[in-house]
Every structure is written in structure tokens, then in C-alpha cells.
Write a structure and sequence with these properties.
Chain lengths: 498, 105
């Protein structure tokens, strides 16, 4: 069953490649998306129960086969990613015109498949394959959804991400040379107790590669220009899935598998400050809805690496909660940005206004999502920020904690800028707004409802995040479950050879 | 091993140099060279360092795993180079030349 969230989107993508007709393609795509979400729900329910489910592809014993694992860390990521991606798909079915939909659907399913491989894989090299599957799909999506001068940004996005993948490949080669294995569980068990400074040679390139993928300052400069240049569906899909795959890998590989977290943590904390602060200042300087929101992606990444950098279970749990909350809220906000562009024909704040009276539903959904992003209680963003501040004070990191609080205030300010520019005030003269697109608002409402629920009833999510954080800090159950059958005799032979 | 290491360094250096040119096509060539450097480094990471075929009964067998990894990486970089060339062509569509006025990096 663990292969279902990977195989279903791959098959859907393949079927779409041979299918003709707008409506037929649309239905195949939506059905594939729904099935993927169902499979992901099964994975997340199984993982939250505390079960570490794993599949050894090809029936080889553990360290030899390609391992797929869902545990308390990857399970929730699979579930939330599937939810956010399904909402983007539903929105795109309602909003995109024929030509744009034609280009979007195929790439969408391959991208989802790549992301699911990334979350579920238990193998260092297979994660590289996941990154590449995701990136090829993302290059096709961003290349076909971007027109005009934005194409230079799309090309820059491709170049920088490819350099990142190549660095990752160098790093995983070094990991193999150093340990003789690429299986994450076996890596963790062989490296336990080694001098972290030595492992840094392996971890260094991987860390830089993952920092590029997650858009950590100063490797984040490619993101804020490339994302808004594409269309809304692509922008929202990338925001919810791509950088979060990098964050997941940072938590899994740097936090759990390679025993270097103590050494790397100060670097993560130092980088989290400019990532948060410069991201939010950049957002405030933009003047279009999706530009502001895309810069915020970077700023929120700062919170996520701050959680990992705090090392404590409380800090990591808050960072994970932050990531999950962001996947939901950021997707909702970007889709609302798309609705604004659809009904008013522009996302420039100067040429917008008065949407509270003309489009009250859109305004309500924006208000809820924006307040959740800014961390206003009782919505979902409040709890992870509260947790991060508490964990930061506990660790004595006054400056980083102060930066986190400052960033929260600036986030509120830039959300107020969008609110004042697009929703309050008078509608510009001569504008003929289109009516509120209810079909487009439905998936956004699902996401906003999820954000509100996460905020009102944070207890289950907190406990899930704490269990995942404990799994990161004490990987023994993960290692034991996956390597349960004794290591294969082939490895013993290798060691005997002179 | 030393010639291999030098070759990897040379490929990585040439790839990096090409990446910093202002030309989209050159950047694609640079990326291809970089991925070749990474592939060779994977080959260099093999244990045991034999040169024979990795078959049972063969003398001095090599490690088959890096070869499998490199094969995967080559296929991936082949696909990506094709996509990158398509995007580079679209960048140049705008200006009739692959020499973009703005630096690409």
C-alpha cells in the first residue's frame, strides 16, 4: 500500500499523456488526484498510530532493497502534501483556461509523484531521484506557465536547482564511500557515535544542496522572482510542496540520520535570522499580491530551520507544526491571490481595492488565512510561533527569538498591506469586476477551515509533532524496524575481502 | 586514483566557469559538465576498488553499486539537459539571441 501514493500519480500522468479532449483529461486528472489523496490518507492514519510501515521493493532484504518508509515524521507530510496538492488541482480545474489546464495537469501529477517518493524514501540516493523527478516536472510546469521576461527567472530557477542536485549527488557519493551504504536506517546506525566533524565532509554538500532546495538565506534569492512569474496554480503548488520537501529532508537527513545536528545547529540558527527578517522585509517591499506572498515563503522557511536549530524536542516539534501549518495556509493565500487576479484582472495593489463589498467571500477567506499566517490566535499560525518562542527562550537564544517575534509583527503588517490595498477602500473607477467564482473558492475554503481547526484544536497536531520530534532525536526504533531481518550476508563477504 | 581526481576537478572547474557566462546555452553545457564530474566522483567512491567485472568467480571484481547509481544519474541528467535546452531556447526566443542582457546567475 505504501507505493500507492507514488504509483497512482505516475499512472495518472502517463494516462494523461495519451488522453485527448479537455473534459476527459480534466476528469482523469481529478480522479487521479482524488485517489492519490485517499492513498495518502491511509498512509497518514497508519503512521499516526505509531506504526513504522516499510516496503522493501523487489523483495531484497533491508539494506539492499530500495526502502519505502512511512513513520511519524513522513506520514503527516504525505497527508498534508496530498491535501494541499488536491486543493490546488481542484482550484486549477475551476480556474484555468483550456490551454493552461492542458499544460498544467500532466506536470502536476509527475510533480506529486516525485514529492511522494521524497517523503517516503528510506534511501539517500533515492531521495536524489525524488528531487530530480520533482524538478523535471517543475521545470516543465514553470517553463510552460511563464511568459515574457519571466522566462529568464524560470531558467535561473532551473540552473540554481540543478547545481543543488549535483552537490547533493557529490554528497551522497561521499556518504557511500565513508559508510558503504546509502540506506538511511543503516547510515544512521553505522554513523552513530562517530566524530561529527568527520561526517561534515559528507554532510557539507548535502546541507548546502538542501539549503538551496529549501530556500535558506543566502541561497533563497532565486525564489521570490521565479515563483510569481509563473501562473497561480504553479505558484501555489510549488509553494506548498517544493521548499517543504527540502525542509523535510533537512529534518530527516541532517536532524535524524547524520549525527551532525549539534554541530550544524548554530549555523541553522544564525541563518534563520536573515531568512526570516529579510524575507518579510522583501515581502513588504513588493506591490503585487502573489509577489508579497512568494517572498513570505522564504520568511517562513526561517522559522522552520530555527525549530531544527534549537535541537530540543520542543523546538523541533514547533518547527514541524510550522511546516505543516504553512503548507496549508500558504497554498490558500496564493490561490486567493489567483482569484483576485481572475476577478479583477490584476494582482497589483495600486489597481485593486474595495473587494470587501464586491467579493465578501473572497475577503473572508483571505482574512482567515492571512491572520493564520501572521499567527493571530486562535488560528493555526499562533501555536507553532508560540512553541518556537518558548523553545527559543528555553535554549537561551534571545536574539533569534526576538527576530522571530519581530518577523511575526512584520508578517501581520504586510498582510495588512494586502488587506488595505486589495480589500478595503474604493474599487478603482472603470473596473468591471467579475462575480465571485464559488467553484474556485471551495478548495480554498477547505484549506482555510483546516487552518482554523488546527488553531482551535491544536492538541492532536501538537502531540503528533512531538512524537515526530522524538523520532528524530532518538532514531533507534526507526533503525530497528527497518533493519529487522539480520543484515544480508553479501556485506559480510565484502568486509572479509582484503 | 589521482588522474581520476584531477579529471573530476577539471570537469567541475570547466562546468562552473561555463555556468558563470552570460549565455543560456553555455550554462546548459556547464550543468552537463558538472553532472559528469559528479558521476565520475560516484565511480571513484567504489569499494572494493577492483577493475574486473562484478560477477561471482571473476578475479578482482569491482563494486557494482556506484555503476548502477551512475547509470541512473546519467539518464536523469540526459532528461534534464533536454528540458534545460528547451527552456534556454524559450529564453532566447525573447531576444533572438542566447546572450541575455541580464546575467543569468
Amino acid at each position: 500500500m505504501l507505493v500507492a501514493p507514488i504509483v497512482i500519480p505516475l499512472l495518472t500522468g502517463l494516462v494523461l499523456a495519451g488522453a485527448h479532449g479537455h473534459h476527459r483529461r480534466q476528469w482523469i486528472s481529478l480522479a487521479g488526484g482524488a485517489l492519490t489523496t485517499l492513498a495518502a490518507c491511509w498512509v497518514v492514519v497508519d503512521a499516526l498510530g505509531g506504526n513504522i510501515a516499510h516496503v522493501q521493493l523487489g523483495n531484497w532484504p533491508a539494506p539492499l532493497a530500495i526502502t519505502l518508509v512511512s513513520d511519524q515524521l513522513s506520514g503527516p507530510f504525505v497527508g498534508i502534501a496530498a491535501l494541499a496538492a488536491a486543493c490546488v488541482l481542484a482550484w486549477s480545474a475551476a480556474a484555468l483556461d483550456r490551454a493552461a489546464a492542458h499544460r498544467f495537469h500532466g506536470g502536476y501529477h509527475f510533480l506529486v509523484a516525485g514529492v511522494m517518493i521524497g517523503f517516503l524514501t528510506g534511501d539517500l540516493f533515492n531521495f536524489f531521484v525524488a528531487i530530480e523527478v520533482t524538478l523535471i516536472a517543475s521545470y516543465v510546469l514553470i517553463g510552460t506557465a511563464t511568459v515574457g521576461p519571466g522566462r529568464v527567472e524560470a531558467f535561473r530557477y532551473l540552473v540554481i536547482n540543478l547545481v543543488g542536485s549535483t552537490l547533493y549527488l557529490f554528497g551522497s557519493g561521499a556518504a557511500y564511500a565513508y559508510t558503504g551504504t546509502l540506506n538511511l536506517a543503516e547510515l544512521a546506525s553505522r554513523l552513530a557515535g562517530t566524530d561529527p566533524a568527520q561526517i561534515l565532509l559528507v554532510a557539507g554538500p548535502i546541507l548546502v544542496a538542501l539549503a538551496i532546495k529549501s530556500a535558506v538565506f543566502p541561497l533563497s534569492l532565486w525564489l521570490p522572482d521565479a515563483y510569481p512569474a509563473s501562473n497561480t496554480a504553479v505558484n501555489a503548488l510549488f509553494a506548498s510542496l517544493l521548499t517543504k520537501l527540502g525542509i523535510y529532508a533537512l529534518y530527516r537527513i541532517v536532524g535524524m540520520v547524520l549525527p551532525v545536528l549539534e554541530l550544524v545547529a548554530p549555523v541553522l540558527l544564525v541563518l534563520s535570522v536573515p531568512t526570516m527578517v529579510l524575507g518579510v522585509l522583501g515581502a513588504y517591499s513588493r506591490s503585487d499580491v502573489r509577489g508579497i506572498l512568494s517572498f513570505h515563503i522564504v520568511s517562513q522557511i526561517g522559522y522552520m530551520i530555527m525549530g531544527l536549530g534549537l535541537i530540543s524536542v520542543a523546538g523541533i516539534a514547533a518547527g514541524l507544526f510550522m511546516t505543516v501549518h504553512n503548507m496549508i495556509v500558504k497554498t490558500a493565500l496564493l490561490l486567493i491571490g489567483g482569484v483576485v487576479e481572475q476577478v479583477r484582472g490584476t494582482g497589483e495593489l495600486k489597481r485593486l481595492g474595495g473587494m470587501v463589498s464586491t467579493h465578501p467571500l473572497t475577503a473572508l477567506l483571505f482574512f482567515v488565512s492571512a491572520m493564520a499566517l501572521a499567527g493571530v490566535p486562535p488560528l493555526s499560525g499562533f501555536w507553532p510561533k508560540f512553541g518556537l518562542v518558548l523553545a527559543g527562550l528555553d535554549a537561551g537564544q534571545i536574539i533569534v527569538t526576538a527576530a522571530a517575534i519581530l518577523t511575526a509583527l512584520f508578517t501581520l503588517l504586510s498582510m495588512a498591506k494586502v488587506w488595505a490595498g486589495a480589500f478595503w477602500g474604493e474599487a478603482p473607477a472603470g473596473a468591471v469586476p467579475r462575480p465571485e467564482p464559488v467553484a474556485q473558492l471551495a478548495p480554498i475554503a477547505v484549506l482555510a477551515l483546516a487552518a482554523a481547526l488546527l488553531g482551535l484544536v491544536p492538541d492532536p497536531a501538537w502531540r503528533a509533532a512531538e512524537r515526530a520530534a522524538q523520532a528524530i532525536r532518538s532514531p533507534a526504533p526507526y533503525i530497528e524496524t527497518i533493519l529487522a531481518p539480520a543484515p544480508a550476508p553479501v556485506l559480510a563477504q565484502e568486509e572479509e575481502r582484503p | 586514483m589521482i588522474p581520476l581526481a584531477l579529471l573530476i576537478a577539471l570537469l567541475a572547474a570547466a562546468g562552473t566557469y561555463q555556468l558563470f557566462q552570460r549565455n543560456a546555452l553555455r550554462a546548459v553545457v556547464g550543468l552537463a559538465l558538472l553532472s559528469h564530474a559528479a558521476n565520475l566522483s560516484l565511480i571513484a567512491m567504489r569499494r572494493p576498488i577492483g577493475l574486473g567485472a562484478p560477477l561471482v568467480g571473476q578475479p578482482n571484481p569491482t563494486d557494482p553499486l556506484p555503476q548502477a547509481l551512475v547509470l541512473t544519474a546519467i539518464v536523469i541528467s540526459f532528461g534534464i539537459t533536454a528540458v534545460a535546452l528547451a527552456l534556454a531556447a524559450r529564453v532566447s526566443e525573447r531576444s533572438d539571441t542566447t546572450d541575455s542582457q541580464e546575467s543569468l546567475l
